[in-house]
Write a structure and sequence with these properties.
It is built from six helices and no strands. It is an all-alpha fold.
Amino acid sequence: MKLMWTTQMLLAVIGISAGIAVAGGLFAFLVELGVVADFADRTHTGDRILLYESCAAFGGIIGNIIYVFQISIPAGPWILGICGILAGIFAGCWAMALAEILNVFPVFLRRAGLIKYLTVFILSIALGKGLGACLFFFRGW
């Protein structure tokens, strides 16, 4: 019985350590991409960057706790819609920051000769992603 208990504790420590390492790497990658810093720069609130980074990490921790322990939040379906919109904005900003770091769009648009249609190109991507998400969630595919 004692061997089983110590094995379970060892597995729990290894699991928690691995989770902390992966989460730390993810948030370090998020900070390295400059998503939080870019938002702080655009809103002219750069003096609060540490608060923003702490809030992003805290949100990830709380989200993981809710997911892992399957905590039910007593709210109507409207809160699910708000959370979905915020998660979509977060994922979209993360993808755009990664694309900006890699200079995907400027190189593609310059080589394709579409540089004067940059605004239309970006809006088309955003509208297509939004339409695809609406079709997915409302049609249930």
